[in-house]
Write a structure and sequence with these properties.
118 residues, mainly alpha, Ribosomal Protein S8, Chain: A, domain 1, 2 domains, 3-stranded antiparallel beta sheet, elongated
Length: 118
């Protein structure tokens, strides 16, 4: 299971525990409310850890791409026929500015990174 799926499952668990806490407080059940609070704290800590790990992976991936010797913005024609472009350029990685990696790298236009000029 990848990091994104694990993070989603943890968020679902956190939501479940919050609903359980709300129901226990409504009924006045202190034992279940206390247990739910402990679970919420534990799950929140785990989520923060996973998000830090995800950020570290994104930073590493961005650094790897920036270290490639050649990069340039892609034209509209190249973007329209991405399959042809990727077949013609070995090792091409395309980063869109609206993806998490694109936002983290701070790019403004669709950019291609490659080991050789294209």
């Amino acid at each position: 299971m990848n990091l994104k799926q694990e993070l989603q499952q943890l968020n679902n668990k956190l939501d479940k525990f919050r609903r359980k806490l709300a129901g226990a407080e409504e009924r006045g059940d202190k034992a279940i409310a206390g247990q739910a609070k402990l679970e919420i704290a534990k799950t929140t800590k785990l989520i923060a850890s996973m998000k830090n790990q995800q950020t570290r992976q994104m930073n590493d991936q961005g650094a790897d791409l920036k270290s490639l010797p050649f990069k340039r913005e892609l034209t509209k024609a190249e973007q329209a026929d991405m399959g042809k472009l990727k077949k013609s350029v070995k090792g091409l990685v395309v980063v869109h500015p609206m993806t998490a990696l694109g936002r983290q790298m701070g790019i403004k236009k669709v950019t291609g990174f490659a080991p050789k000029a294209f």
